[in-house]
Structures are given as C-alpha cells and as structure tokens.
Amino acid sequence: MNIFRFFGDLSHLASIFILIHKITTTRSCRGISFKTQALYVTVFVTRYLDLFTSYVSLYNTVMKIFFIASSCYILYLMRVRYRPTNDPSIDTFRLEYLVGPCVVLALIFNYGYNPTELLWSFSIFLESVAILPQLFMLQRTGEAETITTHYLAALGAYRALYIPNWIYRYFSEGYVDPISVTAGLVQTGLYLDFFYVYFTKVLQGQKFELPA
Amino acid sequence: EGNPVHHDEL
C-alpha cells in the first residue's frame, strides 16, 4: 500500500458516496447511466470472487464487500426506488460492443487459464470501458448536473491515482502487472475530455455544458 | 506454476 493507491481508493469510495447522495437528495437518477452502473456490478462481482479463495488484508476484504454492496444498492435505487426518474431512452450505448471484446481480450490476455483468473482479467478489461455508456449519455445530452460531474471527477481521480501507484510499485517492489497497467491507462485516457471540461468550466463555477 | 501476479489491488 502506498499513498497513491490509498488516496485512489478513497477517491473511489468518495465517488460512490457522491453518487448515492446525488440520487437520494435529488430523489432522481436523472443523468446517470444505468448501463454503466450495471457494468460496475459485473466488474466487482467477477473480480472479487476471490473473496472466498484468497485473503489479502482486512482493508482489502472490507473494501471489496463495500464495492459489491454499494454498487448493488445503486442498481436498486435506480431500478426500484427511483425508477420513474430513470430514462432508458437516452441510455442507448450497446453493451454487447463492450462485453464481447472484453471476453475475447480476457481469453487472450490473462494470468492463468482457470475461471478465477479469466474472470479477473475480464473484470479488468470491462472496468476500463464501463464508463463509456455514462460518457456517451453525457455527450448526447450535452450537459450534466454539477453533482454528477463531481461523481465522475472522483471516479476519474481514482483511476488517475493508480498510475503513480504502479510507477511507485515498479521502483519499490519491482512489481508490474501489465494487464492492469494497460487497461488502467486506457481507462484513465477516457476521462481526459471530461476532465478538460470539468477543470475549465465546473471548477470555475460554470455549468457543465458541452459545445454544440 | 503459479500466478505471476498476486492480485492485491482493488
């Protein structure tokens, strides 16, 4: 554990709390992609199956359980409690375009041909693109509530902080995980456009609006 | 044989 990873994880936690806060206080999941949230549940469940087989630390176990539970709770909020505020007609990204390639990539790039490793690898690739339906929705509507942009910024910061974490681990432990690093770089790259608008508009007190 | 990478990250 190093400060980059620790603050990355904290940022990830913060993003989830911001999202739950947004949905419950506005009593609406408007502007949030159900598909992205469903992908995160898939990511966490497939990756953290090792909860039952390998123990890393109490921190690791508690975080894994939290991520699975909170992501399921968000789906519940969107699908049941605030269902009328969820508009599927603008959440139109085709999931098969994401899931299919991730299955193929996991079969090619993995650390072992067994169910746990294949699912782990699949979850890493899927996480790297899981935000796309959300970003696509943002692009389509051309605007977002400020709270939603804070959610995305915290999520992007979590990914960005994992990069110095890998650099640090390479020098301090000689540890390199090429699958995580490659997928992580792609994932962080997807946020660059968003971050540009977030820094130049939202943090200057303006509304998040994309140029027409 | 063993995993070249031990998954300790979240």
Automatic annotation (TrEMBL), chain A:
| PANTHER family in UniProt | ER LUMEN PROTEIN RETAINING RECEPTOR (PTHR10585)
Signal peptide positions (record) = none
Q: How is this protein named in the record?
A: ER lumen protein-retaining receptor
Q: What GO MF annotations does this protein's record show? A: ER retention sequence binding
Q: Does the keyword Iron apply?
A: no
**Protein location:** Endoplasmic reticulum membrane
* Residue stretches spanning the membrane: 52-76, 97-113, 119-138, 150-167, 179-199
Tell me, in one coarse class, where this protein mainly resides.
endoplasmic reticulum
Membrane topology summary: Multi-pass membrane protein
Entry keyword set: Endoplasmic reticulum, ER-Golgi transport, Membrane, Protein transport, Receptor, Transmembrane, Transmembrane helix, Transport
Q: Which family does it belong to?
A: Belongs to the ERD2 family.
Q: Does the keyword Iron belong to this entry?
A: no
Among the record's GO biological process terms, what is one? Answer: protein retention in ER lumen
Gene Ontology cellular-component annotations: endoplasmic reticulum membrane
